[in-house]
Amino acid sequence: MITTSKTPPPASRHSAPGRYERKGLTLVDLIREFPDDATAEAWVASIRWPDGPQCPRL
Length: 58
What we know:
This protein has 58 residues and is mainly alpha-helical. It has a domain at 24-51.
């Protein structure tokens, strides 16, 4: 039986919200948040290395 209703899929093992719950960003929001490459790079570095980059072998 095929249904055409837009019901969300069952909960998954992921803790992040699914596409039905996400608000998302528009392209304009994204450009305002990251107006240039340096801003985007700084944001990624702050998420990836919150205490600054460190050698994993120390």
